[in-house]
Amino acid sequence: MDTIAELGEHPEAVKVLVSVAVLLFIVAGRRIAVRTFENSGLPPERRNRFLVQSRNAAILLFLASVTVLWAEQLQTVALSLAAIAAAMVIATKELILCLSGTLLRISARSFRLGDRIEIDGIRGDVIDIGPLTTTLLEVGPEASIHRLTGRTVVLPNAVFLTSPVANETFTEEFVLHTTRIDLPEGADWESAERLLLEVAGEVCGEFVDDADQNMQRIGHKHGLEPPTVSPRVWVTTKEDSVSLILRYPAPIRRRGQVEQAILRAYLQRRDVSRATPDAAPQGA
Asked: Long-range contacts for 258-262 (Cβ within 8 Å, ≥24 apart)?
């Protein structure tokens, strides 16, 4: 009686004894059932099936019994594990986001080493890709400048989850670049357009055929209609002003040089054409 009273003061000990008793009961019951079934003279296939099914049923019965007996303790353990897991997630949130960004980049194949990308206002050539960070060799400092600044930018890969990535080297060797030229009010935009196309044709003439072949190859690879690579001009208006947008092919790594060559040649010829009518009366 004293032993029973002592056990009553320790309910966990009682649950342990009950768990052991349940285990012994289940094991003994399964053994009796197996022996009875083995002596029944049934085919071996059915005996094997019964052995497997009885073993699984015994395991499930024991787990269900233990769960009922230790429900309170299991609930406490589950809450503790959930709290620990939540604390770990909060503590390692940035690392998890960076790893998730890496998985997104790999699955989307958005860029690779050597590509020139722009993300969250930062442009540069990818020189290193790690599981947590991506390193860019900065290009700029402005969107219209295509020179290396000499600085490196280390981006956490978590930024790929929230910001779109623009890959400027998707077309591999050549790109269709655009340059905007704003004309003063009342300017002869048709003459400016002809001069701009003339200059662009001269500067880009050496690689137009190569650019066309490159675009044809990329279009066939991705099932797209290849764009026309010859220089073209779009005219836009805003209030009383007119702007010319020139699109032309350029090697990806030289588009800054090509743009400068076109702009300088255009400005020089424009100034010459303006000065010529003034010079004629003086020589008369």
From this structure: 258/177, 258/203, 258/204, 259/144, 259/146, 259/177, 259/179, 261/203, 262/179, 262/196, 262/199, 262/200, 262/203, 262/204
